[in-house]
Amino acid sequence: MTDMKLSLVTVISRSRFDNLDATSFQVLSSKALKGNETSVFAERTEDSSALQYFQFYGYLSQQQNMMQDYIRTATYQKAIHANLHDFADKVILDVGAGSGILSFFAIQSGAKKVYAVEASSMAMHAEDLANHNGLKGKLIVLPGKIEEIELPEKVDAIVSEPMGYMLYNERMLETYLHAKKWLKPNGKMFPTTGDLHVSPFTDEALYLEQCNKANFWQQTSFHGVDLSCLKNAAMKEYFRQPIVDTFDVRICLAKSVKHTVNFLEASEYDLHEIYVPFEFEILETGTVHGLAFWFDVAFEGSQSTIWLSTAPTEALTHWYQVRCLIENPCVVMRGQTLKGKTVLSANKKQSYDVYIEMEIDGVVLSNTLDLKNPYFRYTGQAPQPPPGHHTAAPSDAIWTQTATENGGGHVVKGLTTAVVDAMGNLVEMPTSHPVMSVLPTGVGNMAAHQFQQATSLTHYTTVPILGDYTAAAGGQHQGLLLNNANVSVLPASHGVHWSH
């Protein structure tokens, strides 16, 4: 580093970032560490995009959002702890460290020293955390971009959380690959590989939802104004938005195709245009409304390989899944072959333009989408299975009775308001019975139900059903399987109680 860079970095470090807001920090650290306007990052990124990006990740609330993604954070910790040989007494680089949580995991696994590189104002909070936890001099926070700073030594392993929506959004993976210039020969990278999965899907409700948004613009007298000339433009705009949410995997009409990147071998320039060809054998007749995307990453250590998955069959993460619609859906038949490609072209907004093209029986379907401008559709509701998935009569399952002998009462299996007395009347539960949680195993095709932790209800309008797992009030009897022996249903005059 030049003397000017060193002196400015020293000023920032010695002041411990006092009295700097996010914007001031970004400007100062850029001046100190950039040195010129021709860094790899500067060449590929618009200034306005970079400023917005680093301001966003400078908020503690955003770091909290990621840290509270239990699947994400716990999987990283497990991957690092399960490979002590790769961290014990080693020098580690944490790229885009944020709060420094991965750096702490590395030190927990015996790392000798960790360089935590962070370009946002979160660097000052990371340094505060390091000092507060007695790690000054061991967890070293370096403010700046990995493309623009100097490390005093090579490292044995690199850790980072560089994945965005559809794996590649935000173009942080390029920064992660750029950091390999500081990696010793045969060094480790956590994560090591990334798989982007692609599958055709059917979802008439989602398609109509987007169409209906655009229908607003077909009005010919909106407060006396004819909007109809903008209908086509609105349609194109809505269909350029990737949909970020989750879905039932049964909407996928074919086995997914995966595109793999080995981070130890790939160059950052390989990610400027990502070409994913596919050939799907259709497993079920239906209408193709677009392509669904998710990703898995592997942490391949010396002792263990751990996977982090964002598949629709796995526990939900803050990455969700992504779907790209086409304007003109096409009916496909079971056994047909759907060929095509997905091309992700990097842009200077730290994102990608996504081009999808599918061909079946000479008919070509295509669309271009802007991954920088997704539609965040997730509502917190459990994803609904596709229509027509029942192979037995659902009503028969609802009224299947599981008899109990306690006072002539019975439980109607599968019905949410399910506790009735001998006369068939709903029994109101006691008012003071707090429920910690209910984690059902599911009954037939009925949707799972769940009580929130530490909730107290006046009446139980939804009750655990035989065969469910539950935790009793006060955290006792965790993982209890409800059966006829531990659930008592009494006549209405006696109220209802649980015996555990």
Secondary structure elements and their pairing?
Elements lengths: L2 H12 L7 H13 L5 H5 L2 H10 L3 H8 L2 H12 L9 E5 L5 H8 L4 E6 L3 H11 L6 E5 L11 E6 L11 H7 L4 E8 L2 E9 L2 H12 L15 H9 L3 E3 L11 E6 L10 E9 L4 E15 L4 E5 L11 E12 L4 E11 L3 E10 L2 E8 L4 E2 L17 H5 L2 E3 L6 E3 L6 E2 L13 E2 L1 E3 L15 E2 L12 E3 L8 E2 L5 E2 L8 E2 L2
Parallel strand pairs: 1-2, 1-4, 2-3, 4-5, 7-16
Antiparallel strand pairs: 6-8, 6-10, 7-12, 9-13, 10-11, 10-12, 13-14, 14-15, 17-18, 18-19, 20-22, 21-23, 23-24, 25-26
Helix pairs in contact: 1-2, 6-7, 10-11
Structure explained in plain terms:
The model is unreliable at 1-17, 31-36 and 401-500 (pLDDT under 50). This protein has 500 residues and is α+β, with helices and mostly antiparallel strands. Helix 1 (3-14) runs antiparallel to helix 2 (22-34), helix 6 packs parallel to helix 7 and helix 10 (204-215) packs antiparallel against helix 11 (231-239). It has helices at residues 3-14, 22-34, 40-44, 47-56, 60-67, 70-81, 101-108, 122-132, 172-178, 204-215, 231-239, 394-398; strands spanning 91-95, 113-118, 139-143, 155-160, 183-190, 193-201, 243-245, 257-262, 273-281, 286-300, 305-309, 321-332, 337-347, 351-360, 363-370, 375-376, 401-403, 410-412, 419-420, 434-435, 437-439, 455-456, 469-471, 480-481, 487-488, 497-498. Strands 6, 7, 8, 10, 11, 12 and 16 form a 7-stranded mixed β-sheet that branches. It has a 5-stranded parallel β-sheet with strand order 3-2-1-4-5.
